[in-house]
Write a structure and sequence with these properties.
Radius of gyration: 20 Å
CATH superfamily of the largest domain: Malate/L-lactate/L-sulpholactate dehydrogenase, NADPH binding domain
CATH topology of the largest domain: Ribosomal Protein S8, Chain: A, domain 1
Number of strands: 14
Family: Belongs to the LDH2/MDH2 oxidoreductase family.
Distance between the termini: 5 Å
Order of helices and strands: HEHHHEEHEHEEEEEHEEEHHEHHEH
Number of domains: 2
Largest sheet: 7 strands, mixed
CATH class of the largest domain: Alpha Beta
Organism: Propylenella binzhouense
GO molecular function, one term: oxidoreductase activity
Oligomer: single chain
Keywords: Oxidoreductase
Shape: globular
Helix content: 40-55%
Protein name: Ldh family oxidoreductase
Number of helices: 12
Strand content: 15-25%
Structural class: alpha+beta
CATH architecture of the largest domain: 2-Layer Sandwich
Length: 361
């Protein structure tokens, strides 16, 4: 079965749900099964199995943590990237700068998860050697949830910071056109035997994936999330063409700075070419990683104890009205992942049907 026909049926089903206000039917799928199906889809399209497994792991990690906007629902879009030539499933990244604690990877259009996984390994090794590492990855495709890579660094005992830049999807403050990327940022702090503290956020009010989820689920957007293609505020996900920055000028400023750090240092400018109308807009992302070895500053167990004390102190503070628990960054997602490991995750039934059809195609 052609994947485009399956995707079309999925879109038609979503449109029917929206027209009658019906919530989508969902099914529970085990994490291992989700990974297996995702690997089959990508491997069948020329991606080395190791890279297909990395992409599948990042997508399923997002679904398990309650971030379906960055989960397996992205697979049909990734296939479109392959068809358009934006994603080379057989691409091999090239390390073109390697100088002590600093490195740069030219991803050469390989899958974002494969390129970033390579960079995470390099950042960990160099941080162990130098105390800190800074790497840039250019010319890659959608990296998935930035928090996955930051958490991997934290689980290795490192402070991990990951940021990304890409094509214009969000209005720069004061404009009414798509002019900067939604520019995700993730920071992970190792906490010894506890799960890392994990901040994972977009520079927009919400990630594009959440708007696409609302479209698929037939639910309206909240005011202040998006503009139409001609710059009017909208709550209709079918009309939403431009995202809005978190905190106005603050979110827009972050996105601009991330373009300078991730794209320009990586010799892979995105925004000038895209906004200048130089041909088709390619679906490219760039990223930067910072890793800091806690052990180079102090004994890791003492650092973890201080992190635990900080968390416990905040959790004991008086709660605001209606708040049952004071949550730390990443805590809710961590609980969801623990539950998903035992019970699987719920995804839309039509999406699961589509993915199985794509795996058979």
């Amino acid at each position: 079965m052609d994947w485009r026909r399956a995707a079309c049926r999925c879109m038609v089903a979503a449109a029917k749900r929206r027209s009658i206000g019906m919530a989508p039917k969902k099914v529970s799928v085990g994490l291992d099964e989700l990974r297996r199906v995702a690997v089959r889809i990508f491997a069948a399209r020329g991606m080395p199995e190791a890279n297909a497994a990395r992409v599948a792991e990042v997508l399923v990690w997002a679904d398990a943590g309650g971030h379906g906007s960055h989960g397996v629902g992205r697979i049909p879009t990734y296939l479109k990237f392959i068809e358009a030539g934006d994603l080379d499933p057989a691409g091999v990244p090239l390390v073109d700068v390697d100088s002590g604690a600093v490195f740069r990877v030219d991803a050469r259009r390989t899958a974002g998860a494969a390129a970033l996984s390579l960079a995470v390994g390099m950042a960990e090794e160099r941080a162990r050697r130098h105390g800190v590492a800074f790497g840039v990855v250019g010319h890659t495709t959608h990296i998935g949830a930035a928090g996955y890579y930051a958490q991997r660094l934290a689980e290795a005992g490192l402070v991990g910071i990951v940021l990304s830049a890409g094509v214009p999807l969000m209005a720069y403050h004061g404009t009414k056109v798509a002019s900067v990327a939604t520019a995700p940022l993730s920071v992970a702090i190792p906490a010894g035997d506890r799960p890392p503290l994990l901040l994972d956020m977009a520079s927009s009010v919400v990630a594009l994936g959440k708007i696409r989820q609302a479209l698929a689920n037939g639910t309206p957007l909240q005011p202040g999330w998006a503009l139409t293609a001609d710059g009017r505020p909208t709550t209709d996900p079918a009309e939403a063409g431009i995202q809005l920055p978190l905190g106005g000028a603050k979110g827009a400023g972050l996105a601009l700075m991330f373009e300078a750090i991730a794209s320009l240092l990586g010799s892979a400018p995105v925004l000038v070419e895209a906004l200048g109308g130089a041909g088709r807009r390619r679906h490219v992302q760039n990223a930067a990683l910072i890793a800091v070895d806690v052990a180079k500053f102090r004994e890791p167990a003492g650092f973890a104890a201080d992190v635990a004390a900080l968390v416990d102190t905040l959790k004991r503070l008086p709660k605001a009205e209606g708040v049952e628990e004071i949550l730390m960054p990443g805590e809710r997602s961590q609980a969801l992942r623990a539950r998903a490991a035992a019970r699987g995750v719920e995804i839309r039934a039509d999406l699961w049907d589509e993915l199985q059809a794509l795996a058979r195609a």
